[in-house]
Amino acid sequence: MKPKVTMIAWNQNDNYVVTAVNNHLLKVWNSCTGQLLHDLVGHADEVFVLETHPFDSRIMLSAGHDGNIFIWDITKGTKTKHYFNMIEGQGHGAVFDCKFSPDGQHFACTDSHGHLLIFGFGCSRPYEKIPEQMFFHTDYRPLIRDSNNYVLDEQTQQAPHLMPPPFLVDVDGNPHPTKYQRLVPGRENCADEHLIPQLGYVATSDGEVVEQVIGQQTVDQDEQGLEPSILDGMIRQLQLQQDQRTGADQESASGVPQNGEGTPRRG
Description:
Number of domains: 2
Oligomer: single chain
Number of helices: 3
Order of helices and strands: EEEEEEEEEEEEEEEEEHEEHH
C-alpha cells in the first residue's frame, strides 16, 4: 500500500509535527530539522483526528475510525491514556471529531452513532442532570427547494433558520419534560404552556406508525382557537418588517420621492 498522510498537526509550541499515515501509524517529527523522532503504534484504522493540548506541548490526542482514542506524550513517544469506543450490541463507533476544552481539563468527542463523549477529571454528576438521549424533533425532517433553489422545511414551507426553536426529544421522538425544553436557545423564558409540543402519528421507514412531535401547541389552543405557534407569529411579523425595510431601501436607491418633499428618503 502506498503511504498517504491523512492528517497533520503541530504541537502547542510548534517544536513537533505529528502526521497520521494510512498505514495506521502516527509519526512525530522535529519541525525544525525534519528528523523522524517516534512512531506511535496503536491505531488499527485510518486516523482523521489529531488535536494538540491547549497549553501542554507534550500532549497530543488522536482518534480514528477504529473507535480508539489515545492521549500521547509525543516528547517520549509513549501512550498515556487509551479509550475504546465500544457500543453494546453494535460493535465499535468510529470517532469523527475531538476537541479540548480551553482549560485543557476536558475533551469531547463525537462518533458515527450520534454519541457525544465527554472525558475529564472529577465526577460526572453535573452531566447527569440531562437525559442521555437528546435530539431536536426537526433533526430528520425532510427538506425541499423552492423556485429560487432555497432550502425549505417540507412540512412548514419555512426556511430552517426561521423556524421556531425545536423541541428536545428522545431517540424515539418522545418529547422531554418542560424543564429540559428550556435548555434550547430561544426557549429559556417561555411559559409552560408554550413548551408543550403537538404530537402526531408518523409512519417510519419500516411501516410502523409511531407518535412523534410535529409542532408546537398551547394548553388551551383548541378551546380558544389561538394561533398554533406564538413564535411562528413573531417570526412572520419580523419577516414582514424586514420586507418593508428592504422595499424602502430599494425605493430610496432608485431616487423616487418617498415623502412628498421631492427628495428620496434614506433607508
